Amino acid sequence: MITICQKYKKLHKTTIFTANQPLMNKIILLFLIGIFCACESRDQMPKQAAQETEVIEVQEPASLPEVWNRLYKDYETYREASITNRRFKHSDIVPLIEVLPPPFQLVQAGESVEGRSIHHISWGKGATQVLMWSQMHGDEPTATMALFDIFNFLLADDTYNEFRERLSQTLTIHFLPLLNPDGAEVYKRRNALGIDLNRDALRLQSPESQFLKKIRDEIQADWGFNLHDQSRYYAAGDRNKTASVSFLAPAYNYAKDVNENREDVMQLIVLLNQLLQDYIPGNIARYDDAFEPRAFGDNMQKWGTRTILVESGGLVDDLEKQELRRLHFVLLLAGLDAIAGKQYDKVPSDDYHQIPMNNGAAFFDLILREVTIEKDNKEYLVDLGFRQTELNTSVKKVGFYPRARLAEIGDLSTLFAYEELKGQGFKAVPGRLYEKAFDSLQELKRQNIPALLRQGYTSFRVNAEISNAIKAYLPIEVVQGHRYYNEIQLYGNPSFLLEKDGRYHYALINGRLYDLEKDMKEIQASM
Predict the structure, then answer these.
(1) Which residue from 41, 88, 304, 479 puts its CA 20 to 30 A from 312's CA?
(2) Intervals of CATH 3.40.630.10 along the chain
Protein backbone atom coordinates (compact mmCIF):
# COMPACT_ATOMS: atom_id res chain seq x y z
CA MET A 1 0.00 0.00 0.00
CA ILE A 2 2.84 2.40 0.85
CA THR A 3 4.45 1.68 -2.50
CA ILE A 4 1.22 2.55 -4.28
CA CYS A 5 0.84 5.76 -2.27
CA GLN A 6 4.39 6.78 -3.07
CA LYS A 7 3.74 6.10 -6.71
CA TYR A 8 0.84 8.53 -6.73
CA LYS A 9 2.38 11.32 -4.63
CA LYS A 10 4.02 12.62 -7.74
CA LEU A 11 0.65 12.69 -9.50
CA HIS A 12 -0.80 14.62 -6.56
CA LYS A 13 1.91 17.29 -6.67
CA THR A 14 1.82 17.75 -10.45
CA THR A 15 -1.95 17.80 -10.99
CA ILE A 16 -3.16 21.07 -12.59
CA PHE A 17 -6.81 22.07 -12.80
CA THR A 18 -8.01 23.95 -15.86
CA ALA A 19 -11.24 25.84 -16.29
CA ASN A 20 -12.38 23.79 -19.25
CA GLN A 21 -12.15 20.37 -17.45
CA PRO A 22 -15.54 18.61 -17.07
CA LEU A 23 -16.97 18.89 -13.56
CA MET A 24 -17.02 15.12 -13.06
CA ASN A 25 -13.31 14.86 -13.87
CA LYS A 26 -12.56 17.53 -11.28
CA ILE A 27 -14.55 15.66 -8.67
CA ILE A 28 -12.71 12.43 -9.40
CA LEU A 29 -9.36 14.16 -9.22
CA LEU A 30 -10.25 15.79 -5.90
CA PHE A 31 -11.26 12.38 -4.52
CA LEU A 32 -7.94 10.85 -5.61
CA ILE A 33 -6.00 13.75 -4.13
CA GLY A 34 -7.74 13.14 -0.81
CA ILE A 35 -6.65 9.51 -0.86
CA PHE A 36 -3.10 10.46 -1.80
CA CYS A 37 -2.93 13.00 1.00
CA ALA A 38 -4.03 10.38 3.45
CA CYS A 39 -1.31 8.08 2.19
CA GLU A 40 1.26 10.89 2.50
CA SER A 41 0.16 11.63 6.07
CA ARG A 42 0.48 7.95 6.98
CA ASP A 43 3.95 7.81 5.45
CA GLN A 44 5.00 10.78 7.55
CA MET A 45 3.61 9.30 10.78
CA PRO A 46 6.34 8.29 13.23
CA LYS A 47 7.04 4.54 13.01
CA GLN A 48 6.31 3.94 16.70
CA ALA A 49 2.96 5.68 16.46
CA ALA A 50 2.01 3.59 13.45
CA GLN A 51 2.83 0.43 15.37
CA GLU A 52 0.72 1.57 18.31
CA THR A 53 -2.35 2.02 16.14
CA GLU A 54 -2.01 -1.38 14.44
CA VAL A 55 -4.56 -3.96 15.61
CA ILE A 56 -3.47 -7.60 15.52
CA GLU A 57 -6.23 -10.19 15.52
CA VAL A 58 -5.54 -13.39 17.43
CA GLN A 59 -7.70 -16.15 16.05
CA GLU A 60 -9.35 -18.22 18.75
CA PRO A 61 -9.92 -21.94 18.16
CA ALA A 62 -13.27 -22.69 16.60
CA SER A 63 -15.87 -23.59 19.19
CA LEU A 64 -16.74 -27.25 18.93
CA PRO A 65 -20.31 -28.55 18.94
CA GLU A 66 -21.36 -29.44 22.47
CA VAL A 67 -22.75 -32.75 21.25
CA TRP A 68 -19.24 -34.04 20.49
CA ASN A 69 -18.20 -33.83 24.13
CA ARG A 70 -21.48 -35.43 25.19
CA LEU A 71 -20.53 -38.45 23.09
CA TYR A 72 -17.51 -39.00 25.29
CA LYS A 73 -19.57 -38.79 28.49
CA ASP A 74 -22.26 -41.14 27.19
CA TYR A 75 -19.93 -43.66 25.56
CA GLU A 76 -20.61 -46.58 27.93
CA THR A 77 -24.24 -46.62 26.77
CA TYR A 78 -23.12 -47.78 23.32
CA ARG A 79 -20.01 -49.83 24.06
CA GLU A 80 -20.21 -53.30 22.50
CA ALA A 81 -19.91 -55.47 25.61
CA SER A 82 -18.93 -58.67 23.80
CA ILE A 83 -15.60 -57.15 22.69
CA THR A 84 -13.47 -56.76 25.79
CA ASN A 85 -9.89 -56.77 24.48
CA ARG A 86 -7.93 -56.15 21.31
CA ARG A 87 -7.31 -59.80 20.36
CA PHE A 88 -10.76 -60.67 19.10
CA LYS A 89 -11.08 -62.76 15.96
CA HIS A 90 -13.22 -62.95 12.85
CA SER A 91 -15.53 -65.47 14.52
CA ASP A 92 -16.20 -62.97 17.31
CA ILE A 93 -17.50 -60.20 15.08
CA VAL A 94 -19.36 -62.09 12.34
CA PRO A 95 -22.35 -62.80 14.64
CA LEU A 96 -22.51 -59.08 15.46
CA ILE A 97 -22.58 -58.19 11.78
CA GLU A 98 -25.17 -60.80 10.83
CA VAL A 99 -27.75 -59.44 13.28
CA LEU A 100 -27.43 -55.78 12.24
CA PRO A 101 -31.00 -54.69 11.42
CA PRO A 102 -32.16 -51.97 9.02
CA PRO A 103 -31.27 -49.23 8.32
CA PHE A 104 -27.93 -51.09 8.10
CA GLN A 105 -27.46 -53.00 4.88
CA LEU A 106 -25.02 -55.83 4.29
CA VAL A 107 -24.26 -54.77 0.74
CA GLN A 108 -21.82 -57.48 -0.27
CA ALA A 109 -19.04 -59.64 1.05
CA GLY A 110 -15.64 -60.61 -0.23
CA GLU A 111 -13.28 -63.33 0.90
CA SER A 112 -9.78 -63.33 2.31
CA VAL A 113 -6.97 -65.58 1.09
CA GLU A 114 -8.05 -68.26 3.58
CA GLY A 115 -11.74 -67.87 2.76
CA ARG A 116 -12.93 -65.69 5.65
CA SER A 117 -15.66 -63.22 4.82
CA ILE A 118 -14.99 -59.49 4.46
CA HIS A 119 -18.13 -57.44 4.95
CA HIS A 120 -19.27 -54.23 3.28
CA ILE A 121 -21.93 -52.61 5.46
CA SER A 122 -23.70 -49.36 4.63
CA TRP A 123 -25.82 -46.91 6.63
CA GLY A 124 -27.52 -43.65 5.67
CA LYS A 125 -29.10 -42.24 2.53
CA GLY A 126 -27.19 -39.01 1.91
CA ALA A 127 -25.41 -37.95 -1.25
CA THR A 128 -21.93 -37.75 0.32
CA GLN A 129 -20.24 -41.15 0.20
CA VAL A 130 -17.92 -41.94 3.13
CA LEU A 131 -15.78 -45.10 3.24
CA MET A 132 -14.31 -46.37 6.53
CA TRP A 133 -11.96 -49.35 6.45
CA SER A 134 -10.28 -50.81 9.51
CA GLN A 135 -7.71 -53.48 10.39
CA MET A 136 -6.12 -53.87 6.99
CA HIS A 137 -3.25 -54.87 9.27
CA GLY A 138 -4.39 -57.80 11.38
CA ASP A 139 -2.78 -56.61 14.61
CA GLU A 140 -4.29 -53.10 14.48
CA PRO A 141 -7.76 -53.49 16.03
CA THR A 142 -8.54 -50.27 17.96
CA ALA A 143 -10.77 -48.67 15.34
CA THR A 144 -12.54 -51.97 14.65
CA MET A 145 -13.68 -52.07 18.27
CA ALA A 146 -14.89 -48.48 18.00
CA LEU A 147 -16.84 -49.20 14.80
CA PHE A 148 -18.96 -51.80 16.58
CA ASP A 149 -19.63 -49.23 19.32
CA ILE A 150 -20.68 -46.82 16.57
CA PHE A 151 -23.04 -49.45 15.11
CA ASN A 152 -24.78 -49.60 18.51
CA PHE A 153 -24.96 -45.81 18.61
CA LEU A 154 -26.50 -45.55 15.14
CA LEU A 155 -29.15 -48.12 16.09
CA ALA A 156 -30.19 -46.39 19.31
CA ASP A 157 -33.30 -44.26 19.81
CA ASP A 158 -32.56 -41.47 22.28
CA THR A 159 -31.57 -37.83 22.67
CA TYR A 160 -29.06 -38.13 19.81
CA ASN A 161 -31.79 -38.72 17.21
CA GLU A 162 -31.30 -35.29 15.64
CA PHE A 163 -27.58 -36.01 15.33
CA ARG A 164 -28.27 -39.37 13.66
CA GLU A 165 -30.84 -37.84 11.32
CA ARG A 166 -28.34 -35.20 10.21
CA LEU A 167 -25.81 -37.90 9.37
CA SER A 168 -28.38 -40.12 7.67
CA GLN A 169 -29.80 -37.38 5.46
CA THR A 170 -26.39 -36.06 4.41
CA LEU A 171 -24.09 -39.08 4.29
CA THR A 172 -24.04 -42.67 3.16
CA ILE A 173 -21.40 -44.39 5.29
CA HIS A 174 -19.72 -47.57 4.07
CA PHE A 175 -17.95 -49.72 6.65
CA LEU A 176 -15.34 -52.43 6.06
CA PRO A 177 -14.78 -53.24 9.74
CA LEU A 178 -12.21 -56.05 9.36
CA LEU A 179 -10.38 -56.00 6.06
CA ASN A 180 -7.68 -58.55 7.00
CA PRO A 181 -9.41 -61.35 8.94
CA ASP A 182 -6.58 -63.83 8.29
CA GLY A 183 -4.06 -61.48 9.88
CA ALA A 184 -6.41 -60.89 12.81
CA GLU A 185 -6.70 -64.63 13.36
CA VAL A 186 -2.99 -64.85 14.24
CA TYR A 187 -2.66 -61.22 15.34
CA LYS A 188 -0.12 -60.35 12.67
CA ARG A 189 0.26 -57.37 10.39
CA ARG A 190 0.24 -59.07 6.99
CA ASN A 191 -2.32 -61.25 5.25
CA ALA A 192 -2.03 -65.00 4.69
CA LEU A 193 0.14 -64.42 1.60
CA GLY A 194 2.60 -62.44 3.70
CA ILE A 195 1.65 -59.26 1.82
CA ASP A 196 1.27 -55.89 3.52
CA LEU A 197 -2.14 -54.82 2.19
CA ASN A 198 -1.18 -51.17 2.55
CA ARG A 199 1.54 -51.68 -0.06
CA ASP A 200 -0.73 -53.47 -2.53
CA ALA A 201 -2.75 -50.54 -3.92
CA LEU A 202 -1.11 -50.72 -7.36
CA ARG A 203 -0.65 -54.42 -8.09
CA LEU A 204 -3.79 -55.47 -6.20
CA GLN A 205 -2.57 -59.05 -5.82
CA SER A 206 -4.46 -59.80 -2.59
CA PRO A 207 -8.21 -60.45 -2.64
CA GLU A 208 -8.54 -58.12 0.36
CA SER A 209 -6.90 -55.26 -1.60
CA GLN A 210 -9.05 -55.97 -4.64
CA PHE A 211 -12.19 -55.80 -2.51
CA LEU A 212 -11.23 -52.43 -1.01
CA LYS A 213 -10.47 -50.93 -4.42
CA LYS A 214 -13.68 -52.36 -5.86
CA ILE A 215 -15.83 -50.76 -3.16
CA ARG A 216 -14.11 -47.39 -3.52
CA ASP A 217 -14.66 -47.39 -7.27
CA GLU A 218 -18.29 -48.52 -7.03
CA ILE A 219 -19.34 -45.81 -4.60
CA GLN A 220 -16.87 -43.17 -5.84
CA ALA A 221 -16.12 -42.33 -2.22
CA ASP A 222 -15.98 -38.63 -1.43
CA TRP A 223 -14.24 -39.26 1.91
CA GLY A 224 -12.15 -42.13 3.23
CA PHE A 225 -11.12 -42.98 6.79
CA ASN A 226 -7.99 -45.19 6.76
CA LEU A 227 -7.92 -46.61 10.30
CA HIS A 228 -4.76 -48.10 11.78
CA ASP A 229 -2.75 -48.74 14.94
CA GLN A 230 0.88 -47.74 15.35
CA SER A 231 3.68 -48.57 17.77
CA ARG A 232 3.06 -47.56 21.36
CA TYR A 233 6.67 -46.34 21.44
CA TYR A 234 6.10 -43.29 19.21
CA ALA A 235 6.15 -39.81 20.73
CA ALA A 236 4.26 -36.65 19.83
CA GLY A 237 7.18 -34.42 18.87
CA ASP A 238 10.26 -34.16 21.06
CA ARG A 239 8.34 -34.28 24.33
CA ASN A 240 7.55 -36.79 27.02
CA LYS A 241 4.17 -37.46 25.43
CA THR A 242 3.14 -40.62 23.64
CA ALA A 243 1.63 -40.25 20.19
CA SER A 244 -1.70 -41.68 21.30
CA VAL A 245 -3.47 -40.59 18.11
CA SER A 246 -1.66 -39.58 14.93
CA PHE A 247 -3.18 -38.08 11.80
CA LEU A 248 -2.14 -37.63 8.20
CA ALA A 249 -3.58 -35.93 5.16
CA PRO A 250 -1.73 -38.16 2.67
CA ALA A 251 0.05 -36.66 -0.31
CA TYR A 252 -1.09 -37.68 -3.79
CA ASN A 253 2.22 -36.95 -5.56
CA TYR A 254 5.92 -36.64 -4.83
CA ALA A 255 5.68 -32.85 -4.80
CA LYS A 256 3.22 -33.10 -1.90
CA ASP A 257 0.93 -30.59 -3.57
CA VAL A 258 -2.17 -29.43 -1.72
CA ASN A 259 -5.32 -29.33 -3.81
CA GLU A 260 -8.82 -28.54 -2.53
CA ASN A 261 -9.51 -32.12 -1.47
CA ARG A 262 -6.31 -32.49 0.51
CA GLU A 263 -6.85 -29.11 2.15
CA ASP A 264 -10.31 -30.29 3.27
CA VAL A 265 -8.63 -33.25 5.01
CA MET A 266 -6.12 -30.95 6.69
CA GLN A 267 -8.94 -28.77 7.98
CA LEU A 268 -10.83 -31.77 9.33
CA ILE A 269 -7.69 -32.94 11.14
CA VAL A 270 -7.28 -29.50 12.73
CA LEU A 271 -10.82 -29.80 14.08
CA LEU A 272 -10.31 -33.33 15.43
CA ASN A 273 -6.99 -32.37 16.99
CA GLN A 274 -8.77 -29.57 18.84
CA LEU A 275 -11.38 -32.05 20.08
CA LEU A 276 -8.83 -34.58 21.34
CA GLN A 277 -6.76 -31.96 23.15
CA ASP A 278 -9.56 -31.82 25.75
CA TYR A 279 -8.97 -35.48 26.63
CA ILE A 280 -5.33 -36.31 25.85
CA PRO A 281 -3.59 -32.91 25.70
CA GLY A 282 -0.25 -33.06 23.95
CA ASN A 283 -0.70 -36.68 22.84
CA ILE A 284 -1.68 -35.96 19.23
CA ALA A 285 0.85 -36.12 16.41
CA ARG A 286 1.11 -35.82 12.65
CA TYR A 287 2.74 -38.28 10.26
CA ASP A 288 5.35 -37.33 7.69
CA ASP A 289 3.56 -36.84 4.38
CA ALA A 290 6.24 -38.25 2.07
CA PHE A 291 4.41 -39.80 -0.88
CA GLU A 292 4.25 -43.61 -0.89
CA PRO A 293 3.11 -44.68 -4.39
CA ARG A 294 2.08 -48.20 -3.26
CA ALA A 295 -0.05 -47.19 -0.27
CA PHE A 296 -3.83 -47.09 -0.26
CA GLY A 297 -4.14 -43.78 1.55
CA ASP A 298 -1.93 -41.95 -0.93
CA ASN A 299 -3.69 -43.52 -3.88
CA MET A 300 -7.16 -42.89 -2.48
CA GLN A 301 -6.18 -39.23 -2.32
CA LYS A 302 -4.86 -39.47 -5.87
CA TRP A 303 -8.09 -41.12 -7.05
CA GLY A 304 -10.14 -38.21 -5.71
CA THR A 305 -11.23 -39.51 -2.29
CA ARG A 306 -10.47 -37.09 0.55
CA THR A 307 -8.54 -39.49 2.79
CA ILE A 308 -7.66 -39.12 6.44
CA LEU A 309 -5.25 -41.53 8.11
CA VAL A 310 -5.93 -42.14 11.81
CA GLU A 311 -3.35 -44.11 13.82
CA SER A 312 -3.91 -45.34 17.38
CA GLY A 313 -0.69 -45.42 19.40
CA GLY A 314 0.07 -45.84 23.08
CA LEU A 315 -1.50 -44.30 26.16
CA VAL A 316 -0.42 -44.70 29.77
CA ASP A 317 -2.35 -47.45 31.61
CA ASP A 318 -4.22 -48.43 28.43
CA LEU A 319 -2.43 -51.51 27.11
CA GLU A 320 -5.69 -53.02 25.84
CA LYS A 321 -6.55 -49.68 24.21
CA GLN A 322 -9.99 -49.38 25.72
CA GLU A 323 -9.66 -45.65 26.41
CA LEU A 324 -8.31 -45.14 22.89
CA ARG A 325 -11.28 -47.15 21.64
CA ARG A 326 -13.55 -44.66 23.41
CA LEU A 327 -11.68 -41.71 21.90
CA HIS A 328 -12.01 -43.26 18.43
CA PHE A 329 -15.75 -43.61 18.97
CA VAL A 330 -15.90 -39.87 19.64
CA LEU A 331 -13.49 -38.64 16.98
CA LEU A 332 -15.01 -40.77 14.19
CA LEU A 333 -18.56 -39.63 14.95
CA ALA A 334 -17.35 -36.05 15.29
CA GLY A 335 -15.53 -36.37 11.98
CA LEU A 336 -18.68 -37.63 10.26
CA ASP A 337 -20.69 -34.79 11.77
CA ALA A 338 -18.08 -32.26 10.63
CA ILE A 339 -18.30 -33.64 7.09
CA ALA A 340 -22.11 -33.57 7.16
CA GLY A 341 -22.18 -29.95 8.33
CA LYS A 342 -18.90 -28.85 6.71
CA GLN A 343 -17.67 -27.46 10.04
CA TYR A 344 -14.13 -28.25 8.91
CA ASP A 345 -14.43 -25.49 6.32
CA LYS A 346 -14.34 -22.88 9.10
CA VAL A 347 -10.87 -23.67 10.44
CA PRO A 348 -7.50 -22.65 8.96
CA SER A 349 -5.65 -25.43 7.19
CA ASP A 350 -2.29 -23.88 8.20
CA ASP A 351 -2.91 -25.08 11.76
CA TYR A 352 -2.42 -28.63 10.47
CA HIS A 353 1.32 -27.98 10.27
CA GLN A 354 1.41 -26.88 13.92
CA ILE A 355 0.60 -30.41 15.10
CA PRO A 356 3.90 -31.99 16.28
CA MET A 357 5.43 -34.67 14.12
CA ASN A 358 5.15 -38.35 14.97
CA ASN A 359 8.50 -39.22 16.55
CA GLY A 360 9.29 -42.89 16.00
CA ALA A 361 10.75 -45.17 18.69
CA ALA A 362 11.19 -42.38 21.25
CA PHE A 363 9.55 -44.36 24.09
CA PHE A 364 10.42 -47.44 26.11
CA ASP A 365 8.35 -49.42 28.56
CA LEU A 366 11.04 -48.91 31.20
CA ILE A 367 14.22 -46.85 31.49
CA LEU A 368 16.67 -47.29 34.33
CA ARG A 369 18.61 -44.04 34.29
CA GLU A 370 22.27 -43.69 35.21
CA VAL A 371 22.88 -47.13 36.66
CA THR A 372 26.31 -48.72 36.86
CA ILE A 373 27.12 -51.91 35.00
CA GLU A 374 30.37 -53.89 35.13
CA LYS A 375 32.21 -55.52 32.26
CA ASP A 376 35.72 -56.96 32.37
CA ASN A 377 36.23 -55.54 35.87
CA LYS A 378 35.45 -52.01 34.69
CA GLU A 379 32.39 -49.97 35.64
CA TYR A 380 30.29 -47.86 33.25
CA LEU A 381 27.43 -45.42 33.86
CA VAL A 382 24.58 -46.13 31.43
CA ASP A 383 20.84 -45.93 30.88
CA LEU A 384 19.03 -49.22 30.21
CA GLY A 385 15.92 -49.11 28.02
CA PHE A 386 13.49 -52.07 27.90
CA ARG A 387 10.65 -52.81 25.51
CA GLN A 388 8.10 -55.63 25.55
CA THR A 389 7.35 -57.93 22.65
CA GLU A 390 4.10 -59.92 22.51
CA LEU A 391 4.49 -63.55 21.50
CA ASN A 392 1.52 -65.62 20.40
CA THR A 393 0.61 -68.78 22.28
CA SER A 394 -1.86 -71.61 21.77
CA VAL A 395 -2.77 -71.58 25.48
CA LYS A 396 -6.54 -71.03 25.65
CA LYS A 397 -7.83 -67.70 27.01
CA VAL A 398 -4.30 -66.26 26.95
CA GLY A 399 -3.47 -65.63 23.30
CA PHE A 400 -0.09 -64.04 23.95
CA TYR A 401 2.55 -63.45 26.55
CA PRO A 402 5.13 -60.66 26.99
CA ARG A 403 8.85 -61.05 26.56
CA ALA A 404 11.14 -58.18 27.43
CA ARG A 405 14.14 -57.06 25.46
CA LEU A 406 16.97 -54.77 26.51
CA ALA A 407 16.43 -52.52 23.50
CA GLU A 408 19.04 -49.85 24.18
CA ILE A 409 22.10 -49.21 26.35
CA GLY A 410 23.84 -45.85 26.69
CA ASP A 411 22.74 -42.24 26.94
CA LEU A 412 18.94 -42.19 26.72
CA SER A 413 18.56 -38.70 28.18
CA THR A 414 16.59 -37.45 25.15
CA LEU A 415 14.21 -40.43 25.16
CA PHE A 416 11.21 -41.30 27.31
CA ALA A 417 9.47 -44.22 29.01
CA TYR A 418 6.13 -45.27 30.45
CA GLU A 419 8.03 -46.09 33.66
CA GLU A 420 11.37 -44.72 34.83
CA LEU A 421 13.73 -45.20 37.76
CA LYS A 422 16.41 -42.71 38.68
CA GLY A 423 19.22 -45.16 39.28
CA GLN A 424 22.04 -42.93 40.48
CA GLY A 425 24.12 -44.90 42.94
CA PHE A 426 22.65 -48.26 41.92
CA LYS A 427 24.66 -51.05 40.35
CA ALA A 428 22.99 -53.60 38.08
CA VAL A 429 24.10 -57.06 39.22
CA PRO A 430 23.10 -60.20 37.25
CA GLY A 431 21.01 -62.50 39.42
CA ARG A 432 22.24 -65.91 40.49
CA LEU A 433 20.77 -69.34 39.77
CA TYR A 434 19.45 -71.07 42.91
CA GLU A 435 21.44 -74.21 43.65
CA LYS A 436 18.49 -76.54 44.20
CA ALA A 437 16.25 -77.73 41.36
CA PHE A 438 12.53 -78.03 42.04
CA ASP A 439 10.36 -80.85 40.78
CA SER A 440 7.35 -78.64 40.12
CA LEU A 441 6.21 -75.05 40.08
CA GLN A 442 4.02 -75.79 43.09
CA GLU A 443 7.08 -76.79 45.11
CA LEU A 444 8.83 -73.56 44.08
CA LYS A 445 5.81 -71.49 45.07
CA ARG A 446 6.12 -72.72 48.64
CA GLN A 447 9.47 -70.92 48.97
CA ASN A 448 9.88 -67.40 50.38
CA ILE A 449 10.52 -65.78 47.02
CA PRO A 450 11.01 -62.17 48.24
CA ALA A 451 13.63 -63.36 50.72
CA LEU A 452 15.46 -65.30 48.00
CA LEU A 453 15.44 -62.29 45.71
CA ARG A 454 16.94 -60.16 48.47
CA GLN A 455 19.73 -62.77 48.71
CA GLY A 456 20.51 -62.25 45.01
CA TYR A 457 18.67 -65.21 43.45
CA THR A 458 16.56 -64.37 40.41
CA SER A 459 16.58 -67.69 38.56
CA PHE A 460 15.25 -71.10 39.58
CA ARG A 461 15.41 -74.45 37.81
CA VAL A 462 12.17 -76.48 37.59
CA ASN A 463 12.19 -79.99 36.19
CA ALA A 464 8.52 -80.16 35.23
CA GLU A 465 7.46 -78.65 31.90
CA ILE A 466 5.91 -75.16 32.25
CA SER A 467 4.51 -73.12 29.36
CA ASN A 468 6.20 -69.88 28.37
CA ALA A 469 2.88 -68.10 28.84
CA ILE A 470 2.92 -68.99 32.56
CA LYS A 471 6.62 -68.31 33.09
CA ALA A 472 6.34 -64.84 31.52
CA TYR A 473 4.17 -63.52 34.37
CA LEU A 474 6.22 -64.86 37.28
CA PRO A 475 8.36 -62.47 39.38
CA ILE A 476 11.34 -64.77 38.90
CA GLU A 477 13.05 -66.45 35.97
CA VAL A 478 12.22 -70.14 35.61
CA VAL A 479 15.00 -72.15 33.97
CA GLN A 480 14.32 -75.49 32.30
CA GLY A 481 17.01 -77.77 30.99
CA HIS A 482 20.70 -77.55 31.74
CA ARG A 483 21.58 -74.38 29.85
CA TYR A 484 21.66 -71.15 31.83
CA TYR A 485 22.94 -67.80 30.63
CA ASN A 486 22.28 -64.47 32.30
CA GLU A 487 24.23 -61.39 31.24
CA ILE A 488 23.26 -57.74 30.85
CA GLN A 489 23.68 -57.31 27.11
CA LEU A 490 21.90 -55.55 24.28
CA TYR A 491 18.83 -57.38 22.89
CA GLY A 492 18.92 -59.91 25.72
CA ASN A 493 16.37 -60.43 28.49
CA PRO A 494 18.53 -60.35 31.61
CA SER A 495 17.34 -60.99 35.16
CA PHE A 496 19.24 -58.78 37.57
CA LEU A 497 19.11 -56.80 40.79
CA LEU A 498 19.89 -53.20 41.61
CA GLU A 499 22.37 -53.06 44.47
CA LYS A 500 23.21 -50.06 46.64
CA ASP A 501 25.03 -49.76 49.96
CA GLY A 502 25.57 -53.49 50.15
CA ARG A 503 21.97 -54.66 49.66
CA TYR A 504 19.52 -55.33 46.85
CA HIS A 505 16.67 -52.82 46.50
CA TYR A 506 15.04 -53.82 43.18
CA ALA A 507 14.73 -56.88 40.98
CA LEU A 508 14.29 -56.72 37.20
CA ILE A 509 12.52 -59.81 35.79
CA ASN A 510 11.31 -60.03 32.18
CA GLY A 511 11.44 -56.25 31.89
CA ARG A 512 9.35 -55.62 35.02
CA LEU A 513 10.76 -53.78 38.00
CA TYR A 514 9.95 -54.98 41.52
CA ASP A 515 10.64 -53.00 44.69
CA LEU A 516 11.99 -55.58 47.15
CA GLU A 517 10.47 -53.70 50.09
CA LYS A 518 7.16 -52.31 48.85
CA ASP A 519 6.23 -55.16 46.49
CA MET A 520 6.86 -58.17 48.75
CA LYS A 521 3.19 -59.17 48.95
CA GLU A 522 2.71 -58.72 45.20
CA ILE A 523 5.81 -60.80 44.48
CA GLN A 524 4.63 -63.73 46.58
CA ALA A 525 1.07 -63.46 45.27
CA SER A 526 2.35 -63.51 41.65
CA MET A 527 3.72 -66.98 42.23
Answers:
(1) 304
(2) 75-359
